[in-house]
Amino acid sequence: MPLPASTHHDVVIVGARAAGAATALLLARAGLDVLVVDRSPAGTDTLSTHALLRPGVVQLHRWGVLDAVIAAATPPVRRTTFVYADQVVPIPIQPAHGVDALYAPRRTILDPILATAAAEAGAEFRYETAVTGVIRDASGRVAGVEGTAGGRRVEHQARWVIGADGVRSVIARAVDAPVERQGTGAVAAVYGYWSDLFVDGYEWIFRTDGCAGAMPTNHGQTCVFSLAPLDRIGRGGLDTLRRGVAAASPSLAERLAGATPPAGVRSFPGLPGYMREPWGPGWALVGDAGYWKDPISAHGLSDALRDAELLARAVICAAAGQPEAVALDEYHPHPEPALHPPVRRGRPHRWHALDRRRDPRPAPRPQHRHERGNGRPRRPARPRPLWEPVMNLGDTASRTRTVTADDIERFTALTGDRNPLHYDADAAAATRFGGIVVQGGVTSGLLNAVVAEDLPGPGSVFLHTDWSYRAPVRPGDTITATVEVTDMRHDKPITTLRTFITNQQDVVVLEGTALVWTEALPSRR
Predict the structure, then answer these.
(1) CATH number of 396-518
(2) Could you give the CA distance from residue 167 to residue 293 in angstroms, rounded to a whole number?
(3) Going by DSSP bridges, is the β-strand pair 152-163/142-149 parallel, antiparallel, or unpaired?
(4) Distance separating alpha carbons of residues 397 and 455, to the nearest angstrom
(5) Does the structure show a pLDDT above 90 at 524?
(6) 294 in helix, strand or coil?
(7) Class of 5-50+106-184+272-329 per CATH?
(8) pLDDT, tens digit, for every residue of 248-269?
(9) What rounded mean pLDDT belongs to the chain?
(10) pLDDT at 2
């Protein structure tokens, strides 16, 4: 039997769709040698209702690929309408975090865009390659994958193997990844694409016995779906979809009657949600391979893009010399962070996001709840403010400093970041950066000083930042950090800032936005 064709890489990713291609894009941009393999031909469709919510759109914007999605004639979604029984709740999409609309690109559009960007960054793609298992070294660590391509055996060795191969993940099965969280309920789905159907953005219709909705997508079509228990969806079909829509929304059903129906529809029998252990020695999981959420949430695709970046950050840190256990432990997909604290191994959680079961233990009593005679809580006295923010839209503040090699050493002492790009002149010179660069935290830290000391001033902390690093900063550069007030809340001390940093040549090295909370500090009298 001939020996299998073998290659060696930093990372092999199994699965070239959204999660895998996005992970490859970020790793390749960081200079890693990345191979992506997929059993399907390039550009094929997959089962997906493909709605992107704001976090997913923001990710695409930050990675510089949203323009390609828009250029593919993906219609912008500027309104989401929720229907609960007879209550209609329209929500306009306000500009925030660099995006002013949502999008629902077909997977035949989105996946190739991400793959193309990853290939341009240096990742290699091999389609129609069926992975059958993993390779392990003498210690049992995963060291690559094996499979078939073009009728012959292949082996691809790597320091890390990433499974991005969906709910039936070969990699998850090969490494025997345990399920950490398991849901108990699921809904089935049937969907299809209508032409000549008008919808005003996303339409989500929720009933006690089923849901339906519509979202505009590419090629002048609208994806229409129905969600219900499996006994109602059955094997799917166009008539089943029409009946489900009619039961949930007669008005949407009436519009469907005047539009061009699809030649066929797709259906999904449902699958209870789960979270698998996301990494182990030499391997990690991303997207549906590691974490599955019921499609009723419409968060699956956006969460996959989020997790791709979380995993890429962890692998990049490990590749730069951080202990693998430390770096990869920072990667753990956290579904619905608003519903419960981050779920990490060994840490208790008070809300199970996958099956919605509340912790039976009573919530702790608030510390500042003092009972009056009428039983109502009395608020604690507000501290006397030391500083009251006085700002106007358009106000700006700046600070300037010269970056030194000592800053690199101090940042390393604080964080442990020993990336060779900051210390090894020869290694750094051979990269796209062309020489030593300072850590991103050294650069962005100057914005912390402006916000905390100048505008808004003392008591201010970041709630959210959306920053893009545009150019490297080197020892000896003089950088100027500037913030500009673009919005102020009237009900809460929250300020939106435009932020940017330039070097001595007026080149923008960092830009983006920040959301800041300014706390009224207590008097020290």
Answers:
(1) 3.10.129.10
(2) 10
(3) antiparallel
(4) 6
(5) no
(6) coil
(7) alpha beta
(8) 999 999 999 999 999 999 999 9
(9) 85
(10) 52
Pairing of strands 124-127, 34-38: parallel
**Residues 6+ away with beta carbon under 8 Å from 182:** 272, 273, 274, 354, 355
Structure tokens at 474: 């080197």
Q: HSE of 499 in the Cβ direction (CA atoms, 13 Å)?
A: 30
Tens of pLDDT, residue by residue over 443-489, are 999 999 999 988 888 889 999 999 999 889 999 999 999 999 888 87
Helices 250-257 and 238-248, interaxial angle, to 10°?
A: 140
H-run or E-run covering 211: strand 210-216
**pLDDT higher for 122 or 457?**
122
Q: Could you tell me the two tokens for 434?
A: 């062309």
C-alpha to C-alpha distance for 153 and 165, rounded to whole angstroms: 19
Kind of pairing between the strands at 377-378 and 396-402: unpaired
Tokens of 179: 């399920």
Q: What are 386-433's pLDDT values in tens digits? A: 334 467 778 888 999 999 999 999 999 988 888 888 888 888 888 888
Q: Are 292 and 273 in contact (CB under 8 A)?
A: yes
- Say yes or no to pLDDT of 33 above 50: yes
| Amino acid making up residue 423 | Y
Helix, strand, or coil (residue 390): coil
Give the pLDDT confidence of 188-223 residue by residue, as tens digits: 999 999 999 999 999 999 998 889 999 999 999 999
Per domain, the residue ranges of the chain are: 5-50+106-184+272-329, 71-103+187-270, 396-518
CATH C-level class of 71-103+187-270: alpha beta
120 C-beta neighbours (distance < 10 Å), count: 11
Dihedral sign from CA coordinates of 390, 393, 397, 403: positive
pTM (whole model) above 0.90: no
